Amino acid sequence: GQEVAKRRLTGGPGGRAGSHPARRRLRTLQAQERRIYADEELARLLLGQAERR
Known about the structure:
This protein is mainly alpha-helical.
């Protein structure tokens, strides 16, 4: 379960960011951070449910 969550956090549009200007990269990084935060909340919820079982 945890591995899937980790893969979802690390997986995503990365790698080709080098060709983008720094400003756009910063904007996408901030968007990714927001998405990652939501994913962490979701993962925490799922982990809590799994532990209760």
